[in-house]
Amino acid sequence: MTATTPTAPAPPAAEAARTGTGPLSAGRRWTEHGLVFTAPFLLLYALFLVWPVLLGLKMSLGDDNITGTDSTFTGLDNYAEALRDPGVWSSLWNTVWFTLLSTVPLVVTGLVLALLAHHLRVVQWLWRLSWFTPFLLPSGVVGLLWLWMIYPSDFGLADLLLRSFGLDPGIGWLTDTRYAMLSIVLTTVWWTVGFNFLLYLAALQAIPQHLYEAAELDGAGAWRRLRHITLPMLNRTTGVVVVLQLLASLKIFDQVYIMTGGGPDESTRPILQYVYEAGFTGYRIGYASAVSYVFFALIVIVSLIHLRMTRRSREEAAK
Predict the structure, then answer these.
(1) Which of 114, 125, 209, 266 is in Cβ range 3.0-4.6 Å of 200 for a Cys bridge?
(2) Mean per-residue pLDDT for 121-126?
């Protein structure tokens, strides 16, 4: 008789791979079938985002014109010219100045409106609708509305309000360099604060009610509940609102182009309008692309700084 040697059982991983079960085979199946479902999105993403970015980078290294003909490679000459161009720096400063002026009012006003809408018990839906509705308006409608109804001299609503308080209405809201940027900031706050208001309102509704009940039993008043419960619970939402607001403010173009055209004396011209003028008025697509990439580098730097500050604050809070 011949002795039969017993066969050792297969390892679990090998048995799972042979039978088509287990995490490895599941990952393989996802790779095979998941790509089929994500392929349309990846194709559109590459076609409308990745390819334009690469094409713009290529154009920024040449002297492309608006016709797309007779283009030659110039290297980093466009970037060097952009860094020496006073028009780039003035428009970049206007963009940063607008961002600094608008971010704080938009964040604070959105929070205040959300607190009011959250605690008001009379026609609550009407307050929410009225504060969010302006955000739904197109930029062209908002710009023309404020240009023709709010800021015109003598018959505009802004001058009528000043006259009703006994003040001199002779203010060039959009024609005086001292007030033009502030006027655009006021328009932007009225127009876009509804988005921040909606984010804060959703965050307020997610705060557990028992925290307020416990604080009230301990004798905490409304101010202490706001300071020690509401605001700390809104920290993450505030971080998101600040980042989104910074990015949105840095991309300002529509309302400035409609209301002032960048004037007076180019005091409100943002960097995106300068890119537009360089590319479609000056017909220098290559140079406009270089300026836009300089601006893109600024946005990346701002995002990285905020990310670093947020991460550091979270690490300190966790200690």
Answers:
(1) 114
(2) 80
